[in-house]
UniProtKB/TrEMBL annotation:
<dbReference type="Pfam" id="PF08463">
    <property type="entry name" value="EcoEI_R_C"/>
</dbReference>
<dbReference type="InterPro" id="IPR006935">
    <property type="entry name" value="Helicase/UvrB_N"/>
</dbReference>
<dbReference type="InterPro" id="IPR001650">
    <property type="entry name" value="Helicase_C-like"/>
</dbReference>
<dbReference type="InterPro" id="IPR013670">
    <property type="entry name" value="EcoEI_R_C_dom"/>
</dbReference>
<dbReference type="InterPro" id="IPR050742">
    <property type="entry name" value="Helicase_Restrict-Modif_Enz"/>
</dbReference>
<dbReference type="GO" id="GO:0006304">
    <property type="term" value="P:DNA modification"/>
</dbReference>
<dbReference type="GO" id="GO:0016787">
    <property type="term" value="F:hydrolase activity"/>
</dbReference>
<dbReference type="GO" id="GO:0005524">
    <property type="term" value="F:ATP binding"/>
</dbReference>
<feature type="domain" description="Helicase C-terminal">
    <location>
        <begin position="647"/>
        <end position="801"/>
    </location>
</feature>
<dbReference type="GO" id="GO:0005829">
    <property type="term" value="C:cytosol"/>
</dbReference>
<dbReference type="GO" id="GO:0003677">
    <property type="term" value="F:DNA binding"/>
</dbReference>
<dbReference type="InterPro" id="IPR027417">
    <property type="entry name" value="P-loop_NTPase"/>
</dbReference>
<feature type="domain" description="Helicase ATP-binding">
    <location>
        <begin position="387"/>
        <end position="571"/>
    </location>
</feature>
<dbReference type="InterPro" id="IPR025285">
    <property type="entry name" value="DUF4145"/>
</dbReference>
<protein>
    <submittedName>
        <fullName>Type I restriction-modification system endonuclease</fullName>
    </submittedName>
</protein>
<dbReference type="Pfam" id="PF04851">
    <property type="entry name" value="ResIII"/>
</dbReference>
<dbReference type="InterPro" id="IPR014001">
    <property type="entry name" value="Helicase_ATP-bd"/>
</dbReference>
Length: 1073
């Protein structure tokens, strides 16, 4: 009898040897049983790997979940995972269908499990192991029957005692476990490089990939060259070895009788991106024959979709050697690219329905944009995306400031792309369910010709798992899509790569971070060997163009989406009047903020422990110095806060229109601010309702309710927060921002400023004020926006708990429960032993470890009983460093306002402005027009000037305030007046007086009728809003939205006749005379 291929397994791994040999012996007699045995061997190998790697498999209910865990932890290379998974699928089919399986398929799987077994031996058992190569078993019926009976007896006993055998077999290293783990990873990588799957094994993997995506495929059986296999109606077949001229394509894809694709398959380790050339040649040479239909001809090509692959799962770092390279012959100008998976037959059928060239032309011709997104910059943003799509750009980024209507812009884009049939189905991807609900509400509320977008197109919301055939827009969370794509067994409901052909990622700066910065939970559940974040895998998975929307593009955002194709910045929005800017910030300086807080060596200091809430005394061994960056974080200084808040109470009246947001360092600091601010108002005799000043942080009972109250009700007027209100809140009434905490992130600072930029005409808001007590404005001047964001996922534990108990199926429940346990485990690590003991007592459990273990096996009903216990642990204060308490007195030195780039004094700011104007008169054309011939100035010229000045932080409001503080006179002059004063020494006249003087000249031209006077008043009102009409009457009345809406130049001409032009000329000549 020939020796088994698995005889190399040593005695401690005898079960593996016997499972392998039992499969061999069954190949010819009972291939179904052989497939089950092969699957069983891989399952036992998996259990052994978990044991050796010391990975907890508790709660991992099946082989699929275990394999995913090993892959996500970097234990399995992508090719190893693919082989494990192929065996799992074949074994599952055999286990569920006793008639499934052929000798040929069983032999293929046997060779694959031999490959895995050799890998296991080399990585985990004998590092110098050398395989003698796979040998096809001999068919010897008599010997096989006897041997199978013997093996079955041994296997029954060995499987029963496998856990005990495993404990004996695993020898834990005496050296550093991390070093040993690193060595195992290196050995695994070397094995896959030294022994890549051979050509036969590669074909097995490709067959399985095609089969999983809806194609009938069997390289040996469905083969034209050897079996003359032909396509058939109503079958979706990948026929191997299809005749193409003098050669044979590795696969031809047939949808019924229609030839829709040609595939070139290469050996596993070979570069494949360049091998599309061979596939293209086959697509040129393939001929029309009886019983097949060529669906068209595109230049030289007789097949539309062309592929090249080597069976290796896609990995971005090995893009040329992995994935499925794809080229669409219908659009020859579009470059080839790699796919993560195969198109399904339905994908290709739908793809053939899209005529991109026709749709692009239709979009170019259609200059009608929806009324709900008709602002110039919104139209320009939509045009930029459409142009990028026409140029075959697959990754795009729109950068639009908070409050400028990103969602409306996205809705307009979706409407046009679907209407023109440029795209079939859009995925709108959000990172939180609440944002998904907002998007769904926007689709319902936004109407075109009295129909909402939801009425026009079938829209699926976050709660809808998958799209219907008619669905045009699907809203989904990244987390939900991750589960659908990467955590479903057997792929039954996994979307195909062609399910969506356009993806919009809302708030693209969130979540999309490089892997090494991810949290522990994300590393456990969302990590592909530290290379590809699952966030990124979602958008990379689909064969779709992807658009990111963000207000604050960061370095990692541009690395994923590319540089913005269109930017509408906060400055643009302020200049155009869609957002408000802040006045020059108020800077507070105290004795302590200037000189810091010092503790000397040997001094007795007071320490406050946030964990125990106790105050202790200690003698300092060394001198300690704290500057303002540590105030309220490392050192508690009530005197500093009291001095600042006392001064703030003189600047902010809580009873006047407008609301105030104060940013504190910690929750306890927020409590102190509320107390001291109320005391300050009381000391000054200013009556303040107790509800007017409140703390809203994550530690209060109902933060969301309090946020709504802050937005919609009179009180609170002043809110103190830490991080809760830095993003995601829209309270237009916020008119004051107070910084009592230091930041290092410019993006976070910009988001905080964004809380106050919204227009609020109801209270006459034209700007907002910034109060800086911690030198924040100075320190952030030189910090660029383009810094990598540190990942800091803040999904609340109770949110995950709620998702678990409201999950719709067992799979989702298991996923959320595992995520919940990971969150609680991470929380446990931050608790002191005293806290752990207290929680255990309150939760009535023996220990937190035992309790967490019990959660793993809880049903949904049982988990529902744990709400209070989970919330208690989630909110229990973690271990924190003691804070020093300073009793050093403080006093206010000054409050001043900082102007411009250098946070300068007002006189220096004005001098800098004058210098800039004089030095740039001849360098900036629009500036030259203002100085030399202001009557020729256009609105676009004015906008250019304002943007150029904004770059240097010069703006009309700041110049007005600086002039008042320097000259002791307030003149509400416009920016043109300030420029002409700086360049020519012209007297500064306030804007309203200048306009009225010019209009008096117009009123005196003739005796106007009441209707004409009404129009002249309208012109005057517009000039008060914007100091430029235009160089001539037609430009003045046709380029302004206000006048356009009332008939434009034609209507004005009808009203004033030949005097129309002279009216504009008179205004222009007298405005800046």
């Amino acid at each position: 009898m020939m020796q088994s291929n698995f005889s190399y397994f040593t005695n401690e791994w005898q079960l593996f040897k016997n499972l392998g040999e039992s499969a061999e012996q069954s190949i010819y007699r009972d291939p179904n049983a052989a497939l089950v045995k092969i699957r069983s061997l891989t399952e036992k190998l998996t259990d052994a790997i978990f044991k050796i790697e010391n990975i907890d498999s508790w709660g991992l209910k099946n082989q699929f979940v275990k394999l995913n865990t090993l892959r996500n932890k970097g234990v399995l290379e992508v090719e190893l995972f693919a082989i494990f998974d192929a065996i799992r699928k074949a074994g599952n089919k055999a286990a569920h269908d006793g008639s499934y399986g052929t000798t040929e398929e069983a032999l293929k799987m046997l060779e694959l499990v031999f490959y895995l077994s050799c890998w296991f031996m080399e990585v985990y058992v004998a590092y110098d192991f050398q395989s003698s190569g796979f040998v096809v078993p001999v068919d010897n019926e008599k010997e096989q029957v006897e041997r199978i009976l013997l093996l079955e007896q041994q296997l029954h006993e060995q499987e029963r005692s496998f856990k005990e055998q495993l404990e004996k077999a695993v020898v834990y290293p005496t050296t550093d476990p991390q070093i040993e783990e690193k060595k195992r990873r290196e050995r695994s990588w070397k094995y896959t490089q030294k022994y890549p799957p051979n050509e036969k094994q590669t074909r097995i993997l490709i067959d399985e990939q095609l089969r999983a995506n809806g194609w009938e495929v069997d390289t040996d059986e469905l083969n034209y060259k050897f079996n003359k296999t032909m396509p058939e109606k109503n079958r979706k077949i990948a026929i191997a070895e299809w005749k193409c001229g003098n050669g044979y394509a590795d696969y031809a894809l047939f949808d019924g009788l229609k030839l829709v694709g040609i595939v070139e398959a290469k050996s596993y380790g070979k570069d494949i991106s360049g091998d599309l050339v061979q596939a293209k040649e086959y697509a040129r040479d393939v001929q029309q024959i009886d019983r097949i239909d060529l669906v068209g001809k595109w230049g030289e090509y007789n097949a539309p979709f062309i592929y090249s692959t080597n069976g290796r799962p896609y990995l971005k770092q090995l893009a040329d050697k992995s994935g499925i390279w794809f080229w669409d012959a219908r659009t020859p100008q579009k470059a080839s690219y790699a796919l993560e998976n195969w198109h399904s037959p339905e994908d290709l059928s739908k793809k053939l329905e899209v005529d991109e060239v026709r749709a692009n032309q239709e979009l170019r011709d259609d200059q009608q944009y929806p009324d709900f997104a008709e602002r110039t910059y919104q139209v320009e943003a939509v045009k930029a995306v459409e142009k990028a799509l026409e140029n075959n750009q697959r990754r795009m980024l729109l950068a639009m400031a908070t409050g400028t209507g990103k969602t409306r812009t996205a809705l307009a884009l979706m409407y046009r792309l679907i209407k023109s049939k440029r795209v079939r189905r859009i995925l709108f991807l959000v990172d939180r369910t609440s944002l998904g609900k907002q998007a769904a509400d926007a689709l319902k509320d936004t109407k075109i010709e009295n129909l909402s977008l939801s009425d026009i197109y079938d829209v699926k919301e976050v709660s809808d798992v998958k799209p219907e055939d008619a669905t045009k827009i699907q809203i989904a969370t990244v987390q939900g899509m991750v589960r659908r794509l990467f955590y479903q067994e057997d792929g039954g409901d996994i979307p195909s790569v062609g399910t969506y052909d356009f993806i919009i990622v809302d708030e693209a700066h969130r979540g999309y971070t490089e892997d090494k910065l991810m949290s522990e939970e994300e590393l456990t559940y969302f990590n592909e060997k530290e290379y590809i974040s699952q966030y990124r895998r979602v958008i990379d998975y689909f064969d779709a163009a992807v658009l990111g929307l963000t207000a604050t593009p960061a370095l990692h955002t541009t690395e994923i989406f590319g540089k913005p194709i269109y930017t509408y910045s906060y400055t643009d929005a302020v200049v155009d009047g869609y957002l408000v800017d802040h006045d020059p910030p108020y800077k507070f300086e105290t004795e302590l903020s200037k000189n810091g807080i010092k503790f000397t060596e040997g001094q007795e200091v007071t320490l406050w422990d946030p964990e125990t809430q106790n105050i202790d005394k200690a003698l300092l061994e060394d001198e300690l110095n704290f500057d303002v960056t540590a105030f309220n974080k490392k050192v508690i200084t009530e005197s500093f806060n009291r001095v600042i808040l006392s001064s703030l109470a003189e600047h902010i009246d809580p009873e006047v229109p407008g609301k105030t947001l104060i940013f504190a360092a910690t929750d306890s600091h927020a409590d102190m601010i509320v107390r001291l601010l109320k005391e300050s108002y009381a000391e000054k005799g200013i009556p303040v309702d107790d509800d007017a000043i409140k703390k809203i942080t994550g530690y209060i009972r109902h933060p969301n309710k309090e946020i709504k109250r802050f937005k919609n009700e009179k009180y609170p007027k002043i809110v103190v927060t830490v991080d809760l209100l830095t993003t995601g809140i829209d309270v237009p009434e916020i008119s004051n921002l107070v910084f009592l905490r230091r930041l290092r992130s410019r993006i976070l600072y910009d988001q905080m400023l964004g809380r106050a930029t919204r227009l609020c005409p109801e209270i006459g808001k034209t700007s907002f004020k910034v109060y800086d007590a911690v030198h924040l404005y100075d320190t952030l001047q030189d910090i660029t926006d383009m810094k990598p964001l540190v990942a800091n996922p803040k999904q609340a534990t109770m949110d995950i708990y709620e998702a678990a108990i409201h999950s719709e199926n067992d799979e989702a429940f298991g996923f959320y429960k595992a995520e919940l346990i990971a969150k609680l485990q991470r929380r446990k690590q931050k608790l002191s032993e005293k806290s752990k003991s207290e929680i255990s007592e309150l939760n009535d459990v023996q220990s937190l470890d035992c309790w967490l273990q019990s959660i793993k096996v809880m049903s949904k009903t049982e988990l529902e009983t744990q709400s209070e216990n989970i919330q208690r642990m989630a909110e229990y204060k973690a271990v924190s460093q003691p804070m020093y308490i300073s009793v050093a007195p403080d006093e206010l030195l000054f409050v001043e306002r900082g102007y411009g780039e250098g946070n300068e004094k007002p006189s220096d700011y004005l001098n800098g402005f004058n210098t800039f104007i004089r030095e740039n008169i001849n360098l900036i054309p629009a500036l030259h027009i203002v100085v030399s011939r202001p009557k020729d100035l256009t609105r676009e010229d004015l906008r250019t000037i304002e943007l150029k000045l904004k770059e240097k932080r010069y703006d009309e409001k700041s110049l007005q305030i600086a002039w008042r503080n320097t000259k002791n006179e307030y003149i509400a002059a416009d920016i043109i007046s300030f420029i002409r004063q700086a360049a020519l020494g012209s007297p500064l006249i306030d804007h309203e007086t200048r306009i009225k003087n010019a209009m008096q000249k117009v009123y005196g031209i003739a005796e106007w009728t009441p209707m004409q006077e009404k129009w002249l008043k309208r012109i005057e009102e517009q000039l008060l809003q914007q100091p430029v009409l235009g160089p001539n009457a037609q430009t003045a009345f046709d380029d302004s939205g206000v006048f356009q809406q009332n008939g434009g130049y034609k209507r004005v001409k009808a009203m004033f006749g030949e005097q129309t032009d002279s009216i504009v000329e008179t205004i222009n000549e007298n405005l800046y005379a």
